[in-house]
Amino acid sequence: MSESGFGAKIHAVFVHTQDLKKSAAWYSDLLGLPFYEEEVESPVYNMPVTGETYMTLDDHAFDPDYHFEPVRTPVFNFCSADIAKSYQWVKEKGIMIVRDIEEHGDFGWFHIEDPDKNVVMICGTVQP
């Protein structure tokens, strides 16, 4: 821990949304997580993701001065063990793909759009 009292560790990623329940359902489906609509309560919903970093959906219900703007450049990514398989799955689900797979060696990525038009990146391994 540094003198500041915090370290070089990300606690949470915030995804700003206009419809908290719709976004919670969409991200739950995308990530294969159970969705219980009755547990979604404004202004924030913490997605039950694994690992040390949280994913918080935020509708800013208590912030009357907030103006929503979709994030068009990804600020986080989901990991894939097989980028081509993930791309095909997303495509079959009818999720908007806004940037096709790009590859750099054995690493690849593509971009999708959530219900609020936020751009999300999926990165991972390019299988031989």
UniProtKB/TrEMBL annotation:
Pfam families (alphabetical): Glyoxalase
Gene3D superfamilies given in the database record: 2,3-Dihydroxybiphenyl 1,2-Dioxygenase, domain 1
Xref: SUPFAM superfamilies: Glyoxalase/Bleomycin resistance protein/Dihydroxybiphenyl dioxygenase
The VOC domain, residue ranges: 9-125
InterPro entries tied to this protein: Glyas_Bleomycin-R_OHBP_Dase, Glyas_Fos-R_dOase_dom, VOC_core
Signal sequence residues: none
Protein name: VOC domain-containing protein
